[in-house]
Amino acid sequence: MKKLILVRHGESQWNKLNLFTGWTDVDLTEAGIKEAYEAGKLLKSEGYKPEICFTSYLKRAVKTLNEILDAMDMDWLPVEKSWRLNEKSYGAIQGLNKVETAEKYGDAQVKLWRRSFDVQPPALAIDDPRSPRRDARYAEVSDKELPLTESLKDTIARLMPYYQGRIRQAMEEHETVMIVAHGNSLRGIVKELKGMGNDEITEFNIPTAVPYIFEFDDQMKLQKDFYLGDPEVIRKKIEGVANQAKKK
Prior knowledge:
Elements: E1 2-8, H1 13-17, H2 30-45, E2 52-55, H3 59-71, E3 79-81, H4 98-105, H5 107-115, H6 152-173, E4 176-181, H7 183-194, H8 198-202, E5 212-216, E6 222-227, H9 231-242
Parallel strand pairs: 1-4, 2-3, 2-4
Antiparallel strand pairs: 1-5, 5-6
């Protein structure tokens, strides 16, 4: 039985402030560090033993993975990082408060920017200080590939070559693989694995720091998927993600 473990990063500083984050490299909160460590303890107690891990270039995902591996006493595992696992770019609305943005533009418009399949938020200007083109970690990535805004469709398009190539190769070579990334990049993987339609993925939310397990047979056909942890706690966390941009 092959296993893939997906984990969204723990609570970040901008999650706590309810800001659009995207490619902005914000750190974890103390609560985010704790929930990441607890996710690792849970994985260890349930007997999961990943053999290789993947994460993004953004510190909230990298540090979540570090906390998970520390809790599992598996800090030595090989880890590969790719910008293709980064969060969706929210373009010019990165750094804005989600509720205040909904009050200005309306719930429906903000939901399209947050969760629709093919609607992009307003783009960053090329010379905007927030542009990834000004960030040294992306120096080897072509300007054509670096996003100034993205829809979920765009996020999946830049993610899938890496998933279908390197990550699928790792899944064939190992029994258990773990990916620690972001809400939208992970939604792209889930859409692929479960064959979700565009409308279905729009309503699908992933909670922070909850291990999401996928099990496959030897032919890599999905057999089942499930979250680890208390179902009621997980339900409330998912509702919290869904309601982030709703006006009070």
